[in-house]
Structure prediction request, 73 residues.
Amino acid sequence: MKSANNTVTLSSKYQVVVPSSVREHLKLKPGAKLTWIEFDGVVHLVPHQPVSAYRGIARALTDSDIPREPDRL
Prediction:
């Protein structure tokens, strides 16, 4: 998905509408859970994923790819 200027307006009930291009790209459905993360004045909306969605994300890592800290075994 290319970055687009999807401007939304905060309603009087403090609600926003997720633009259709974003909903389609992220495959969001009604009732989807999103987490608001605010960092340094920027808000990120992160969709909740089931734990199974993260399976295998570190498959290509080896022990030598993980830095060791001196105070850890």
Q: What stands out?
A: Residues 26-65 form one domain.
